[in-house]
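Appendix B. Extra example for self-study. Work through it before the problem class; the solution is given directly after the inputs so you can check yourself.
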Amino acid sequence: MSNAADLTADLDALVADAAERLADARDLDSLAALDAEFLGKKSAVTAAKKQLGGLDPDDRKAAGQAINAARTSLEAAIAAARERLAAGARAAQYEAERLDLSEKLGEIRRGSLHLNTQARDRLEDVFVGMGFTIAEGPEVETAWYNFEALNIPEWHPARGSFDTIFVNLGEPEEVMLRSHTSPVQIRTMENQEPPIYIVAPGRTFRTDTADATHLPAFNQIEGLVVDRGITLGDLSGTMDEFVRAFFGGEVKTRLRPSYFPFTEPSAEFDISRPDGSWLELGGCGMVHPNVLRNCGIDPEEWQGFAFGFGIDRLAVMRYELDDIRELVNNDVRFLRQF
Amino acid sequence: MKVTLSWLREFAPDIDGDPVELGETLSALGLAVEEMETIGEIVDGVVLAKVLDLRPHPDADKIQLVDVDRGDGQPLQVCCGAFNMTVGDLIPFATIGTVMPNGMEIAQREMRGQMSNGMCCAADEIGLVSGDDGIYILNDVVVDGAELGMPLAEAIGMQPDVLWDLEVNANRPDAMSVAGVARDLAAALGVEFRFPEYEITTTDEPVDSLLDIRIEDPELCGRFVATVLRDVRVGESPAWMQQRLIQLGMRPINSIVDISNYVMLELGQPNHTFDLATIPDGRLNIRRARDGETLVTLDDIERSLVPNDGVITDESDTIISLAGVMGGATTEISDSTTEVLLEMAWWDPPSISRTVKRLNLPSEASTRFRRGADWGDNIDRAMRRFIQLAAESGITAVSGFVDVPGTTPDRTPVPVRVAKVNGLLGTELTADDMAAYLISIGFEVTMAGDTLHVVVPTWRWDTATETDIAEEVGRMFGYENIPRTVPKGDDPGGLSQYQKDRRLVREVLLGAGCDETLPMPFLAPGDLAKAGLPEDGVTLTNPLHAEESVLRTSLLPGQLKAIAYNQSHRNPDVRFFEIDHVFLPAAEGEILPDEREHLAVAIAGEEAPAAVAVLDALDRALALPNVQLSPSSPAGLHPTRSADVVIAGRTRGHVGEVDPAVLEAYGVEGRVAWLELDLGAVLDGPHGNRSYSPVSKFPSSDIDLAFVVGDDVAASRIEASLRKGGGALLTDVELFDVYRGPGVDDGARSLAYRLRFQATDRTLTDGDVADVRQACIDQVVKKTGAVLRG
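Solution. Structure tokens for the complete assembly:
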């Protein structure tokens, strides 16, 4: 029987031999076989452990330490080999799975929201932030809502300027496609007690032949505030705040006296262009006392202002469209740009 | 309304300053400047010259040779195509190097062998107006001290001028005249405004002996002023008058018409001239027309009149003029006219408006009457101005005016509360401030404590109330001087639930790859029928084009047109959605159509399930209550591939495919999957209710079942039976395969489902799963006649 020194020498040789063979292992299967050979039940290390009982106590301790050291070395070597092989296998997998991500098939394409809707949403959001709610109304209206309640009697020259499209319902010229969004003012005041803070976006109609700058159906947004002590200064300040929120802080506003039958005083509101010139954006004014009275609101107790302007034009301006008809052609080559 | 600086200065000589700034001031007064231009400038290089000799061109008939002296005393030869000059005439001469207004540069050139060293100019070639046919003869035009070779502008005393084109609102009848604009501008600039005195001389013959005028309807005619002009010769008006008429956009006609227009533009008072010889005894009556009466107006068109129309009749009660709108043909002045009845009146604006609108006869005159002309001293002033201008052509006027009163607008002072005006404007003006602003534009003001009593001037017919007067105060104070404030309501702003849901719907559809389209809501006649829909669309009374004469009752025709348009541009497979109004026939007793907001989804190149998938996505997003597809054949849709969409028991729309016959009619290629919902009804109805059920902590078991069932049994019925059989333990059902082919009878298909079972209180045993599986099978077999596929 060999002594502890011999055993240690044998184990050292075994570890050295194992290191070489583990380095040669090319896959995880051969590594598993080597693992069994070096550390399994039939391995030299296991056999050596069984022989410990036959040694004298001094040798037994030294031999035991040698066996444990060999075992630890072998385990570490096998773990290192496993790690090396696993990393190689993963790397091989990565290489095998290489993809060109620019080979795009089955694209998920989000649709495009129409420019008018985008402009309308932006306007609504700005006014909501200023404390307004959004009112809506029908596109076919009676003369009462489109004209009379708005202080435009039947003989009034302003009626002609609206170029109204009438429909074949009721008496002649009694029912029409609304020529402005102002009827929504009337409907709101008929149904809601002041205070009122609304904007009303929607489609309006005129007998305009479609060309690069006109459509017979286009979109406006109308605003109405009715509250105690509302002034022309409030209107001016509100337009200013809206314009700063919508166009940015550099854009200035001004009011110019104008005339609308449903407001008194009336004004046009202009915004400044970068070159310092002014662009007429829309009309506005203090709600005419007759309009308030027509809706059962006492003009001595309540005052209000109203304003309105075109939505399509904002889209045309923002993207410098050269033909407004693009907005109704529904050509995907146009729609998908936005 | 166009005005020139020089003309304004005839009423307010101290108006001065940078034309752009003056324009800004006009805009701030509510007289928006639409265009501004500098006029009356003559290009450099055009000088005063004299004709020294005229002789024929040796080799040309259409041109002659002219020697001119342009200041150096030397004859300079030019070739000229005009023949109206005589030796000694003074003419405008463009020297070599002059760039003419049309861009042509004058150069020395040879014409048929003769040298031409410049150009003799006609008036229009240098931006001027004259009566000369050919070269502008300046003999009577040059100023004292003019010398040959002098720049032409200096030689004829021409001053550069500024022309503003103003947008005048309907409430500003006064600003439809040069004088009215001058009044406003002078007030804003703080300079004096005054009317010139128009001195006239008349014959001794009293007008009363010549005219006999009666106003039968005083509400129609507030005032009627007339006189008689003699020695009338219709000829050309002087160049300066033609020049101004042209500048303001009117065409010179003849001396009488031009004076009439000149006075109207200058003072705002329309006027009319009758050939006195055609009015027996000078008798006129003013009344409303009667039913059945007609008048041939001076455009030779016979007009049928109605009782509203104001008319002027003669002694035989025959209508000779449509008051304030257009004269009659029989009394029109002509070249042989020697005596004229000159008339200026004030007409009731609504009456004139109705007649103009009914007969579609707008004119410069009626536009002023409709807005309310001046019924005060301005009529007398305009009469004198007319007579004064006519006198320059040798026309004489008889003595005095016939001045017949009717009913003029009320001039009771309007009480104007200082606090109310400040409260409307957001200002802190004193009563004195307000009074000063009002007085500066002709209002009369009496103070009474906190109230002004304001008499509105006769030239402001539209101004009548405290609010109207507040606007005048604001206008003169300057809107830009009003402090800007922002009111805040008590309530927060926000979108309504409906509006939020509509935005959510749009987001879902965008996520489904659909582009939003917004076709116009008009259809052509036949579009609805072509789409298989009833032709009950509301029609337009005055469409611009027949193709835009019907309001849509469905979004289908518009979407099909949009798809066809894109297919014709080589984009066949578009995915569109639209949320917009449709107009269904009016309900019984309603005057307005039944207007609704619809949603449409159109997927070109896809079959019906693509539309159902979109509906399912909407269902998940909105949590709609109990959505069922009820097979049906909706109008316009594929009869065997479509269904009603039933939500909580109510039909809210249709889903499926568009009828191939309809696609063919619209020229659409391929299939179109289609969904249209009454979005308003869907969103107004109950939805969005979601409740919590705890997520089970226990394992689930999946099994697959396939059934063979006839094509007449909807898959939704199989699923419903599975759910009924599975009860609470069945948590998921997924159809994962549909098979038709060998092994399955014709007219039937195999539907394969994956079922997931799970309990919330325990792990299911194999026995539990077997039991519930059998219950599912039994239910399907019993309810649908399906057979379990082995």
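Self-check: The CA atoms of residues 222 and 408 of chain B lie 5 Å apart. If your reasoning did not lead you there, revisit section 3.
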